[in-house]
Amino acid sequence: MKLNSRTLRRLLPIFLTFLILFETPAIIATTPRPQQRFFEFYALGANGLAGGYYPNNSPFIQTDQLIRWYLAVTNRMGSMQFIDIRVRLANQTLTAPNDTTLAPSSAPVVAEFKQFIQDNQTWEIPFIWQVLNVTTTQGYSRILQFQIGNVTYSLQNAPTCSSLSSCSFRFIFELWTWNLDSSEFQFPWWNGNEQQIAWIQLWFKVTPGVP
Amino acid sequence: MTVKMVTAAFVAFVVVVLVLLLLHPVPVSSQSTLQQQELSMVIEDVLKAESAGARPYEMAKLVAGLNSVLYLQNQLENLTPQDSNKQSQLLSQITTALANVNAEANQIEINASHRTSTRRIAIYGLGAFGAFLATLIFHYALLLRGRRRMKRVLRMRIVAK
Q: Residue ranges of the domains in chain A?
């Protein structure tokens, strides 16, 4: 049966209606949906669990005692990310990163770990460390030397404490991400119109002997 | 007398120029800054490939290439100034690795954007074909209904009451 022009004119609006009905799911399927962008940043203990961060569950750490932590970052930003984890050594008085002003900690950076992470991938860093040398001069104690992995770090301007037994030190781990526009690492990242930061801190006390 | 004055003025001018040059050193991009800019450009290309629709295994390859550059840069930073041979060797390795990742990212971007546009055309084409098929079914269904009605009318009998 042949379709005449009258029939075609009658069928055209029907075809257009079907076209809209069929193409709408196609457009929805091919348009990327807006998603929440974030990082999962966490530290695990020696057994890879959220616990057992210190030997004998005591935050008192002797010099030359090996401490095993695992840091992990999962990228949920929807694209590949260039990450820099900045490790800072602080005492009780130095400021931690500020979640309101999004400012990083004022403590000195002692080590950095950089890596490219694919979207939805996790990067795990074994953070195996020990305090090698502690000194007390003019009534103030400070960590002179410590080791992370196989690298020994000598500290020039390490934070001080009035006494080893009363004062706590802490490692602050900050998550910095690469900014393409400025070609440098930035502390806060954008989640839509909102800026966010990620950081962790783990406290410890240094003791020359068994507590 | 005039010659002496001209010579003194010239010497003074040269001294002033030299002092100004010393006070305002000409900014020269260091090797690491250049490398950082190069790295930034390569990252941009990799991200373009990803947004064009690169597959996870393709991205994994590019990410591995970029991480190998980081490994080489780390080795370079830990070298002593005496290892100049090793330094130039690592620098050339970094440049080669970056160029490889860049070339691969560009190729993946071309393939991915081609793949994405083909997929889109197929999906939209399928939608249009579905609409055409539905219109035909609708049209013939109406025709069939019309014929059945006509048959029913023709089979009717006139019964006198």
A: 38-207
